[in-house]
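Please decode residue identities from the backbone states below.
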């Protein structure tokens, strides 16, 4: 289960980076903001999983 969550985190981060870059390229502020938001969600999910890993040890 944890590996699946880690994968989701990385996927969200990657999608967010692509959206942000695309938004900057075409000058679309909404798309840029969506990309940053997705990256933040991925970062939060990753932090949660790291906390779980630390508490197991």
């Amino acid at each position: 289960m944890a590996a699946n969550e880690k994968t989701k985190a990385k996927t969200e981060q990657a999608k967010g980076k692509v959206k942000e870059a695309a938004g900057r390229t075409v000058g679309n502020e909404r798309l840029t903001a969506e990309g940053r938001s997705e990256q933040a969600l991925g970062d939060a999910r990753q932090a949660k999983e790291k906390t779980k890993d630390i508490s197991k040890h």
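Observation: The two ends are 17 Å apart (CA to CA).
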